[in-house]
Specification:
This protein is mostly beta strands. The chain has 4 helices and 12 strands, in the order E-E-E-E-E-H-E-E-E-E-E-E-H-E-H-H. A hairpin with a 2-residue loop joins strand 9 and strand 10.
Length: about 220
């Protein structure tokens, strides 16, 4: 479990495809003290396992499932990635609960600088629409952000200078892919309410009703 508060921006040193899987070598500094083989770490919002330590950082393996569901298939040496270690029981939860389980891949559709701040716009897959609400939480490449405004298949977030200085967002350009993870609470509400692509018959609880009630 993670919080979406990025600890360090690392760099992809190498990315080797091996059939349908891959191994990434990631350079990091601040996260290395105490890091051990077998530890979990969120890389651009994707929970990966450290399979080896290097002089510059660590190695992580990516399965076929991970490559198919995330933006890692587009990674190249030199790419900047957001890094976060798992949440400790004694840590303040400053962001929101992030599992590191990517729900889909979105695209950067707009970047609007605003006097040191910035407004970023992202598209998202249509099947994620029920879980995305205005003023709700979302993890973008592992960054815990609040949805400032919402359209049919896109949303905007307001980025403060601290976030710009401590994440890989300044390296993003219009057209780039990003990993999206919706708020786990929204997904549980969907499951408990009987939501499916084709809703169950007899269910009277709708997402429109939940939004009207402030959920």
């Amino acid at each position: 479990m993670f919080t979406g508060l990025i600890e360090e921006v690392g760099t992809i040193q190498s990315f080797q495809l091996r059939g349908g899987t891959a191994v990434a070598e990631i350079a990091a500094r601040n996260l290395m003290p105490g890091l051990q083989k077998g530890d979990s770490i969120a890389v651009n919002g994707t929970c990966l396992t450290v399979v080896g330590l290097t002089q510059q950082g660590f190695n992580a393996e990516l399965s076929q499932e991970t490559l198919a569901r995330t933006s890692f298939g587009e990674m190249q040496p030199g790419s900047k990635v957001n890094l976060e270690r798992p949440l400790l029981p004694t840590t303040r939860l400053g962001g929101h609960f992030v599992q590191g389980h990517v729900d889909g891949v979105g695209k950067v559709t707009g970047i609007h600088p605003e006097q040191g701040f910035a407004r970023y716009e992202f598209s998202f897959p249509a099947d994620l629409q029920p879980y995305i609400v205005e003023k709700g939480s979302i993890a973008i490449d592992g960054i815990s952000l609040t949805i400032a405004s919402l359209a049919r298949c896109s949303f905007q977030v307001a980025i403060i200078p601290h976030t710009l200085a401590n994440t890989n967002l300044p390296d993003r350009h219009v057209g780039d892919s990003v990993n999206l993870e919706c708020d786990i609470l929204a997904k549980y509400v969907a499951s408990l309410s009987g939501y499916r692509a084709e809703p169950k018959k007899g269910s009277t609880l709708t997402f429109e009703y939940l939004k009207e009630q402030g959920y």
